[in-house]
Every structure is written in C-alpha cells, then in structure tokens.
Amino acid sequence: MTVPGRRSSTFIRLLRSGFTDPTAASRLLEADALAAVRTDPVLLDALGATADPDLALLGLVRLAEAQTPEDLPLLLDTLVAAKPLRDRLLGVLGASEALADHLARHPRDWQALVTYEAADLHPGLAEFEAGLADAHDPVTLRVAYRRCLLSIAARDVCATIDVAQTAAELADLATATLRAALRIASAAAPQDAAACRLAVIAMGKCGGNELNYVSDVDVIFVGEAAPGTDEGKGIQAATRLASHLMRICSETTVEGTIWPVDANLRPEGRNGPLVRTLASHLAYYQRWAKTWEFQALLKARAVAGDPELGAQYIEAITPLVWQAAERENFVADVQKMRRRVVDNIPASQIDRELKLGPGGLRDVEFAVQLLQLVHGRSDTTLRSGTTLDALHALAAGGYVGRADAAQLHDAYRFLRTMEHRIQLYRLRRTHLVPEDEADLRRLGRSMGLRTEPVAGLNKAWRRHASVVRRLHEKLFYRPLLDAVAQLAPGETRLSPAAAGQRLEALGYADPASALRHLEALASGVSRKAAIQRTLLPVLLGWFADSADPDAGLLGFRKVSDALGKTPWYLRLLRDEGAAAENLARVLSAGRLAPDLLMRAPEAVALLGDPEGLQPRTPEALEQEVMAAVGRAESGEAAVAAARGVRRRELFRTAAADIIASYGTEENPAEKDCGALVDRVGDAVSELTAATVAGALRAAVRDHWGETLPTRFAVIGVGRFGGHELGYGSDADVLFVHDPREGVDEQEAAKAAQTVIAEMRRLLQLPTADPPLLIDADLRPEGRSGPLVRTLASYAAYYRRWSLTWESQALLRAEPVAGDADLGRTFIDLIDPLRYPVEGLGEDAVREIRRLKARMEAERLPRGADPTLHTKLGRGGLSDVEWTVQLLQMRHAWAEPGLRTTRTRQALAAAHAAGLIPTEEAQILDEAWVLATRVRNAVMLVRGRAGDTFPADARELAAVGRYLGYPEGRVGEMLDDYRRITRRARAVVDDLFYGA
User: Full-prediction pTM beyond 0.90?
Assistant: First the structure.
C-alpha cells in the first residue's frame, strides 16, 4: 500500500541532497539491484556529498546490476558498512562517467578501492608496476591501467592526496605503463630486444612528475646497438621496439586507448629519426638545437628501458640545459615562443582555455622555466622539473618574491585541480572549461564549492587567472632578465668579501671566525663548494634569526665536513625545501641537538623527510630495538645498538621540538605549548621504555638464554610512568619479579638482582651515546630497601608498612618493560593503595601537606631563586603535581577519569568532575606546561639538565627564543614566568593547603 506523501518526502530529500533530477533518481533507487540499501540514509547522504549525485547514483545502479548474484551482497554490504570504500567509490562515480563505464564493464574492479593500507594511500612506482605486472597485451594493459587509475582518482576526489600528489602518482603510473608496454613489445620481438639497448626519456609533464589524467606522454628515445651487433641494425631494432611501444599505448582497442605517446620533442621533431644514439643526440644539441629544445629538456627524466643508458643521457644533456641561458638572444627567444603559443589559440576558445590562455597554466610554467634557465646555471637549487617545486626554490632563492610565489603557487594548484576534474569526467584530453551548466555545477562541487558551485567556480577561476596574468607579466618580461642572462656564470655567486660584510650586518659575535668557516665551506671550484655558495646566503639569515648564529654556522661546518662527500647530503639541502631551514634551526638552537647529530650525522636526512620529524610509535621503537638486540653478539653490543637507536630518536624528538617551537618561513611556530610538551614527554618516555626493554632482553640473553628463572617486570614511576620525561630525565623505576614454578626463591631473587645490575651497567657504559640512568630510589623503604622484590613481598610490605608518600609515588606507576602479565598484576595490587576507597583520611592529608612543606624548606638548592626554580620553586612542577596528586588520592576511587599517571590528564579530569574551577585548572596547566618547557629548553640549550634559567646571557636568550620571545625580550620572559607561577601558587595554596 502506498503511503500518501511518501513520494513527495523522498522527492524533497533527494532535492536537498543535491540531486538535480529527483524524479529520475527516485526511479533509479527503485532498481531491484539496490533493494537491500535503497532506504539506508547513509547511502543517500553519501551520494549527496559527491560532485554529481545523479551521475553517482546512475553509476552505482549500473555497477550493482553488473554484479553476479553471488557478488552483489558483498558490494552492497561493504558500501553501507565501510565509509572509506563508500566515499571512494561514490566519489569516483560522481566525478567520472568514464570510470563508471569501466566499472560496469569490469564489475569486480570496485574491490580495488576496498583496501585502506598505508601503501594503498600513497602508492609509488613499485605498486603501480605490480598492478600492471599481469598485463600481456594492449587490452589487458588498458584494463590494468584503468584499475590503477581508479585508485588514484578515488584518493584524489576524496582529498586523500592533493593535486601535486595526484599529478606525481599519474606520472608514476605513466612510467609503469611505459615499462609494461616496452616489456610487451620486447616479448613480441625478442630478437629486436636482444639486438639493442633502448632507453625511454620522459619529457614534459610526465618527466616533471606532474602529469594530467589525460595528456600526451612526451618521450625521447635513445638507442645503442647491443655488443656484437652492427650499429645500424641495432638502431633499426630499437626503432621497431619504440614504434611498437607507442602503438601499444596509443591505439584504440575494445578497451579504448591509454594516451598518445608523442615523440615530437626529439631532435629535428617529426622529420628526425625516432631513435638516435647518445652520440647523435649530443652532436645535435651541441650544434643545431634551438632555445625551446633546451627549455623542453629541463624536464627530461629517464623512465624506462636500459637504466644505464638513460642515466648517461641525462648526465650528458644536463650541462647543456643549464648553459642555454648564455646563448645569444635566449630571453627574447623564449618570450617569442610564449607569444606564439597564445597567438595560435582560436579566438572563440581563448576565454575558456585553461592551459594556454592568458592567466593560464602555461603562463606559470613558462615564467618558472625562464627564471630557472636564467638563474639555474649558478643556482642549482632551481633545477627541478616540477613546476611547484621550482617555484618554491625560486622564492627561497629570492628570485621571486615570497608573496608573489605564494599567490602563483595557490593559483597554479587551483588551475591544475580544475584541469584534472575536467579531464576526469570523460577521460578526454581537454583544457577547455565547459560551457554547459550541469558540467560547471559538477566541476564546482568537485572543487569543494557546494553553496553556489557555478558562480563560485567562475569567480575563483577569474580571480586566480587575473593573479597569474599580472604576476606573469611582472616576472616574465622583466628587462632585468636580459642583463642577468648576459653575466658570466661566476658573477652571481657569493664572494668571501661579501660574506664578511654580511656577517657583520647580521650581528655575528665573532665575524672573523665565522668568515673562516664560510671560506672553508664555500671556497674552491668543487661541486660541493658551488652548492654551498648557493645555500649559504639563505642559511646565514636563518642562523642570524637565532640566539647563537655563530654556533649554528660552526655546527653547519662540522656537519658538512662529516657529510660533504656523501652524495645525498647537499642534494637534500638543495632540493628539499624545508631541509636546509630545519637544519639551520636545529644547529643554532643550542648544544643538545647538534651534539646528538654529530654522533651520527646521517640523521640529518630526517630533516628533509616530511614524515622524518614525526615520532615513531612505541611498537615500531620496541620492534627496532629488539631486532638490533637480537642481531648483536654480546650484551655490550646489543645495548650499544639500542642506545644508538635512542640517540637517533632523541635527535628526531629534539629537532621536531625546536622546529615547531621556532617555526619556519612556511610553518609558523606551534601555538599549543601543551601539545609540544606532551609530544616530547610521550616520545622520550616511549623511547626510554624501548631502551630499557632492549637492555633487559640483552641482560637475560647473556646469562640465561631466552628465559629468566623468574618472571620479571620493570615499572616506570615518576615522570617515566607519567609519560613526562624530559631530555635530561633519569628513568625512575621499580623492579618486581615472581619466581617461575619449581624455581627456588633465593635463586630467583639472585637472578633478578643480577639482571638489574647488568642492565644498569650496560646502560651506563662509556660510549658516544648519552647514558641512561636508572633510579630505583622510589622503591619501598627507599635506598634502605631491597632493589627488587617479589610480588608477594610487595603485597606484604604495602599491607603492613606502606607510608602515605609511597602510595603517592605509586600514582604514576605504569609497566614499561618485561613480563606484561606480571606488570598488570602489580598494577592491580597497588590500585587500592593509590586510589583508596572513600579517599584519604584527614590524617593522611595532613601528612602529605607536612611532607610538601618540609620539602619546600629543605630541598631547594642554596642560593636558588624560588621564583625561578622550575621544579621546587613557587608555582613550579612540584606545586602543581602534588596538588593534582592529592586530588587523585582523595577522589579517584569515585572518579575513574582521575586514574591516570599523567599530570595534565588528571588535571583535566579533576576539572571535568567539578573538583576544580575552570580558571584555576587553566592556571595550573599553564604553569606546569611553562615550567616543563623551561626545563626542556635548558637541556636543549646547554646540553645538560637544569631546573632554573641559565645565568649566561646568550644561553638565556636561546631559552627565550625557544619559548617564543624575540631577541631582547629576556626580561619580559622572566617577568612572565614569575607572574604565571605566582598565580599558580595562589591556586596551590587554596587547593592543596586549604589556605
């Protein structure tokens, strides 16, 4: 029976979900294939979130109807239950009619979107090659290519990857496809493959790792005869292979085509031979090539075929590319070429031309390439085939203003995203913005413009095109370029005299020493010195932005001396935009990070990897440490390896902390100081736990093999258990053991004692790595008590003798290494002590207050300023922690949120439970975070732990810079610290002492 109004409500809901034809959509939803999900609200909402809900629904119905009765439930169940798959599949169906057609023809290919592993999120060339590995002819290659393309499009429309990553993945897929096509061609003509060496050089957007969805793939072929083969016959064989490769990719089959392979950028263009030898290529370029050909070669990259031959080609032509700017009339030639491209656009299309029209993509690309060729001859940082990377390098080198570069960057990304979405719809090669309203609506929605997609798209497009046109004219036609292009190559480099003057202007404390470092780095004619000359002007500015530029420059010299001969070091600083600035920040921020780096300079590679500064997971750390311990032949070697991992990870943590605290030109300083403190505390604590676990494994293995006669666990307490360790913290622990069945208790105790002694010995052996001190003074009876106890002994002690302070110390107890079950049992044992039922009695509260007051009076070092001591001073760490711990011991029995070892979490839980007002909780949190950051800063700056601000003026200034205070604001920093901690002490007096 039809319920009155049902159709009307469905119609309205479809309209609100973004469907333009709700009537047709209603009919599609009634399709038998969607019977199981047609009423599911999740499906309708997901369809409404796509670029074109009508198109997405039609594609889904076609896909569902193409399924076998056995496969259809899997598709529908996964669609409803798995949001990643739902977003990916419907996103593609709503953006690409062509990929919907592919899925209808190959109904099982939707399963390529189900997996959501790390490699699936960011596949590289190897993954795409694997995806094409089974292709054995043009048809199967097209099917496999579309399947890979489907995964790229899904990540693209779901914004898992940005436009630059999409373009890079498309270039990787093209590379894999060229390799597969060459493999198929070689298999079809094995005699030809044996008679020659053939290398495929990608040009254009494929060579620059910035390919479109549908674009000609520009290539150049280089061939050589195989040993023992006549050169003429070898080149003929290579030509047949190259021709077959082009047909495999370009010809139309029952599965359509992939893309045209265009070899017209080769010497002499269409009139020249398809394949030449390397010598023939070089002879042509040295004698006959035109300016535009060198501009095209800027993006040349060997992608398929003989890798050695490809590398030889790139090595041979690279110097010719960067000498092109010295050619007569170079700039004028390039400008003429640009104008000729614009003049060839039909008048009816010029306003819709996204690529070649005024303010289009080509304007950005030509401007960037011209500046690269003019300045790249002496500045190798500019030698990138990728437009956005080159633009970033131009800005970093000062050849383009940073504001201009940022605007060009944003405009180029926007225009490339438009181009991608236009091509993705039907997988056709076009650069024209559509005129049809429905197409514009889909395009706008795919760009995230949902309210008024057509009007919003046109407005944003015109704005970006206007920016490009204005900046392009400013950059591209600057008369200055003619003058710079005529300079001798050496005249644009930094001279020692100029460096000395700049050092004085930048305020280096010892310009003479700094100049000697510079001369050592930049003098000479080696490639290393040439790259240093391009880096140093920028680095000097970054060093000068720190509190100790002299130390930064000295550190840079030491690192460069250690790594200068390794091929990747200077390349990293030159090509990875953030690496050089990150290194400058780290080297000039204090002693700890440079000291850690100099013990293993190769860790500088972490600074150029976007993921390099992210903390490792505890599982990954422990796995690496245990693997290193397992490979070592002795306990000493095992723990040396574990300490090496600890040193590298301490550097990673310190570097990330410094860079986030200072900020960079691209990323401002982290505003959330609490997050910074938490990251350091978690990272150092987890690293310490992994190191302790490694030392334990090594100690056990050396004396007992794999199994100790007693179960053994290490319990972290204090800052260790609270995940609040700083760079210079000791590891506070308790040791517990439980004899295995049948093992004598004395034997078990002796084994446990031996393990502890061996662990401590190994972790403190004199090496280049920082030692890890294990402190067990918080155990029952303190230093007078046994170092390790059985679980039963702990239970008996706590039942009869435990003091209030010992229960308080257990608030931050957490297993960190050893037998996990024993650790959990220990926690079960101590929970009633640290979270006593009904809370602490008044006598116990008074005892805690008395102990705190005594500690304040007796433990503060003589002569220390109580207003500036971070641990024991007024409103410092001790004040906040004891206040929070008192709240835990009084209320955790009733408030589960308080049962945490972490101070900030417990404070937040106390606030959530109404035990402390909002303002007072914020005051305590701010003071605790600030005091922790000061301690971390002191260790970073001085290289040794300290609980108060340094006395040395330069060290004090460095602490200030870490905390975000500009130069000359040290007094303000100290005043702020006193003010914040004074307010915290007032809260402590109220909450802790009950004043």
Answer: no
